[in-house]
Write a structure and sequence with these properties.
The chain is of the alpha/beta class and about 130 residues long. It has five helices and five strands. It has a five-stranded mixed beta sheet.
Length: about 130
């Protein structure tokens, strides 16, 4: 599945999208693909298509001014995540955690500086 505003794709689907980093090599393992995506996108959320917490994560980040890359994983692909649970947020290649961790980072005042540091947000937006 593809959505233009938020990049949403199933990781198993062979993609020829305009964003080459979301495409996959046929011989690339799920683990390798996930690691590559984590390193290529400043803010990325891995989720299941039916996960309502992902919507809350996206809304929180959108309120701040960040449009994360969102990857829908199949149930058998969740185990390939560094922490096998969904949703799983990564900022600057670092595992942040689920919704509770993202909200805690925001409430503590550390989320915006981290987003600025990885280039996902400029100071003029906040």
């Amino acid at each position: 599945m593809q959505v233009q505003n938020d990049v949403v794709v199933s990781i198993l689907a062979v993609s020829t999208m305009s964003c080459p980093s979301l495409s996959m090599e046929l011989d690339e393992s799920t683990e390798s693909r996930i690691q590559r995506l984590i390193t290529e996108h400043p803010v990325i959320i891995f989720t299941r298509s039916s996960c309502c917490m992902c919507h809350v994560m996206k809304n929180l980040l959108a309120t701040i001014g960040v449009n994360p890359t969102v990857i829908n994983l199949d149930d058998d692909e969740i185990d390939a995540l560094p922490s096998p649970s969904a949703p799983a947020a990564f900022i600057g290649g670092t595992f942040i955690g689920g919704l509770e961790s993202l909200v805690a980072l925001h409430v503590s005042g550390l989320l915006v500086p981290k987003l600025v540091q990885v280039g996902a947000l400029s100071l003029g937006i906040v």
